Amino acid sequence: MTLLASPLHIIFAATCTIVLCQEYEVVQTAVGKIRGLVETVGKEKVFNFRGIPFAKPPIGDLRFRKPQPYGPWDYTLDATKDASPCMQTLNFGGLKFVTNDEISENCLVLNIHVPGKISNSQNKAVMVWIHGGGFFIGQGSWYNASELALKGDVIVVTVNYRLGIFGFLSTFDEASPGNYGLWDQILALQWVKSNIAAFGGNPSLMTIFGESAGGISVSLQTLIPYNKGLFQRAIAQSGVANTAKLATKSRAVYDFFAQQGDCNDISQENTHTWVQCLRQLPAAKLLNVSMEVMKHHMTKMDFNMILGPALDGDLFKADPRDLFSDTYSEEQKFFRSLDYMAGTTDGEGSLLLMMLPMLAEKYQMNITEGVPTSVICEVYTPKFANVYYNGARGAADALCSKCKVDNSKENYLAQQGENLMNLYGDLLFVGPTIKTLKEHEKKNPKAKTYHYVFTADRDFSEMGIHRPPWYQRSGHGTELLYLFGSNGLTGVYNLTDSELKLTDVMIKYWSNFAKYGDPNGQSLPQWKEYGSEKNYLDLNHQISSGKDLFSDRISFLQDDMHKLMETTEKHEEL
């Protein structure tokens, strides 16, 4: 073993046996020494520090409260192994989104990936990844960011945050305001800003990025003025703040506890007593209720938030949909001060495919052939109309008509299926993303705005994910395989030469944006700012560009349908 000192008080250690040689690095931070593992990617070194605690375990009296800083330690923290994932189901649709099975409430940790070497002269840009998973599942270390860090020459941090009932239970009063998972993210960002310089990072050059629930989280964090100075740029992938309304009720949660016979006495007068009762329950019972709520949410096809970000009167005093219309609010000012990139895949509707089998027997549906009119017009469009158009008269019929195809046409069921997937994807992801970009870009001289659509299709049948022949598009989350590289996600993926080239291009675009606020760089196809022409970049094996993505579809949802709502409101006033 050898010890080498440096200006950062970094200690290098190599421990060898006959069969194994591992290298370690110890970094002195403001809170204590941290020991990480040196790994080789290709011929380059990446310094990985895993499972660094940024908050005290949120257990006992700290359950259902804002996270408390972990504080300093007087020993060398071992950060060479993945820490426990936060409480969640370990099998979701046959898939696992964690690196180990040891779920725990003691899970508020972050992971740091440093390329090349560690030196305070590096001053590298920092990218903080917020994972997706519907606010119910996921783990920061499921994403190995070594390749992204190395090829992008940036420091990448991935974080855990509380999920499901543990992270988002809200009584909508002081007993349990909610949004603890978002507060976890904020505390993690504060930890990074205070300590990343010890790893060679620039605390004044931070970008937050995330996908799905992570993209929603990123977008929500850009609407919190409290975060001013924590980060300078944001990338929201397949999810933005106005993807879904913030939760405003938890009746379903109360009902499930009542059915179990635990803490079933709930009223407006005793929410404090009720929450204190929940603090005494085993975590496994709370997890069970959390997952039952999620199943209920899916089977009832309720597209409102239940256990997710809530209108708590603290982080959010108004729904993001209203905040976006208030040009002079502090939220808007902060949002528009940040460089912003956002986009989706062209097959976001793939998420709906998970729900269709629930209806197959009742509606005698063969999903391979397509989707019958009864499923579209009796099940989905009425719900879409209620959630997105306040149940306006004629809204469900208008959405139904948009999806229907003349049944005399060949393969009409397949076309209807594709239309329904597009409608779902546009309502939840594409439309809200475009609206967010428009608000950010509008007469904004302070920051840059970029839009992308990811269209590279891929077969994920090796993961047990099968799609009907009529919906062969780039599904929700597909871009993650390319952004993090062939070893970036837990699993084995053999990428073709063309796919590897797309990985390199995406990493350059994302890391350039983090460094400069501009994704463009040498040898890269030009990516124009969104601007008044609504420019976007099409990420595929052949990069291309376009204007006004899916303009007819989005115009129908955001213009024609809202005119219908206005007409309905006027009739109701008469």
From TrEMBL:
What keywords does the record list, in alphabetical order? Hydrolase, Signal
Q: Where is the Carboxylesterase type B domain?
A: 25-550
User: Span of the secretion signal?
Assistant: 1-21
Entry annotated with the keyword Transmembrane:
no
The family database entries (Gene3D superfamilies) matched by this protein are listed as:
alpha/beta hydrolase (3.40.50.1820)
EC class = hydrolase
InterPro entries with a match to the protein in the record: AB_hydrolase_fold, CarbesteraseB, Carboxylesterase_B_AS, Type-B_Carboxylest/Lipase
Q: Which SUPFAM superfamilies match?
A: alpha/beta-Hydrolases (SSF53474)
Where on the tree of life does the source sit, at the highest rank? Answer: Eukaryota
Which PROSITE patterns is this protein grouped with?
CARBOXYLESTERASE_B_1
Give the EC number(s) under which this enzyme is classified: 3.1.1.-
Recorded family membership: Belongs to the type-B carboxylesterase/lipase family.
Q: Any idea what this protein is called?
A: Carboxylic ester hydrolase
